[in-house]
Amino acid sequence: MGNIYFPNDFAVDKTYPTIVLSTPGSSVKEQIGANYAERLAANGYLALVFDPAYQGESGGAPRDLENPVVRVEDISCAVDFLMTLPYVDESRVGLLGVCAGGGYAVKAALTERRFRAIGTVVAIDLGQAFRQMLAGDGLSHRLEAVGRQRTIEARGGAERREQWIPDSLEAAKSAGITDPDLLDAVWFYRESPWCNPNSTNRIYFPSFGHILGFDAFGLVPDLLVQPLQVIVGGRRSSTGQYEAGERLFGLAKGKKNFFVIDGAGHYDMYHQADYLDQAVDRLALFYAEHLPART
Fold it and tell me: Which of 22, 96, 101, 108 suits 279 as a labelling partner, its CA being 20 to 30 A distant?
């Protein structure tokens, strides 16, 4: 299930440059994707934002599955859909990914050449992030637990889900959490005006097997040929978004630009208007250069 945001001057008999948005893990289309899509539309672009399969208002079971392979395929399916719309200029389609969606966007772009320009905002490689978080025995223990859970379900047992983050700031503080970035995430997803009932804050436990084997950036030097715009928040954080952006930028061999939003933390880039405006201003220039109007 997705939403298309239209420019103010939209006319069905014209064609428009179009941006597909790939959103963060656990988010739904009404949250971060909508904030960027509205601004891109104001800059003259069609913008498509959608709920991933198994999440939000999209179909599929088991619910709350986060499978990077499926997330990447969702992006190609989004382009398939756009190619059926007469007002989409198929030669001027770009891609924008935010947070984990940035990693998924890059992975999709490696083989999806219908995207002519790729933008990322606070992109992370979700697989690498979880491998680092569970480094050492934790990684092995998690994979063993995934195997046990799959066996339980294969034998007819109950599905298992875990929280992405605590369900409230009170719960986070009661658990002794002091990381300001994690507290920002809890506020945004669970208590802010962008809290949405379709965002369950639950991950289907076998998802961790898919996530831990995922590598978003590994083939970038070999397969990424499109121009790349990397945007990071200037305030480094526990999410590793700045370092991931540097890594992605260093791996890319073609036309590329690295842009820092001074003072912004990871979750600031989800909703704070001044930071969003800076990011979209930069993206609009980037897409205008690499998705030019035909003469």
Answer: 108
- CA dist., res. 225 & res. 219, Å (int): 11
Residue 133 CA to residue 258 CA, distance in Å, equals: 26
Cα angle 189, 194, 197 (rounded to 5 degrees) comes to 70
Indicate if the alpha-carbon torsion angle 42, 45, 46, 52 is positive or negative: negative
Indicate the burial class of 99 (C-beta count within 10 angstroms; 0-12, 13-18, 19 or more).
buried
Interatomic CA distance for residues 110 and 223, integer angstroms:
5
- 3-state secondary structure string, the chain? CEEEECCCCCCCCCCEEEEEEECCCCCCCCCHHHHHHHHHHHCCCEEEEECCCCCCCCCCCCCCCCCHHHHHHHHHHHHHHHCCCCCEEEEEEEEEEECHHHHHHHHHHCCCCCCCEEEEECCCCHHHHHHHHCCCHHHHHHHHHHHHHHHHHHCCCCCCEEECCCCCHHHHHHCCCCCHHHHHHHHHHHHCCCCCCCCCCEEECCHHHHHHCCCCCCCHHHHCCCCEEEEEECCCCCCCHHHHHHHHHHHCCCCEEEEEECCCCCCHHHHCHHHHHHHHHHHHHHHHHHCCCCC
Question: What is the greatest pairwise CA distance in the chain?
Answer: 62
Note the pLDDT tens digit of each residue in 15-55.
Answer: 999 999 999 999 999 999 999 999 999 999 999 999 999 99
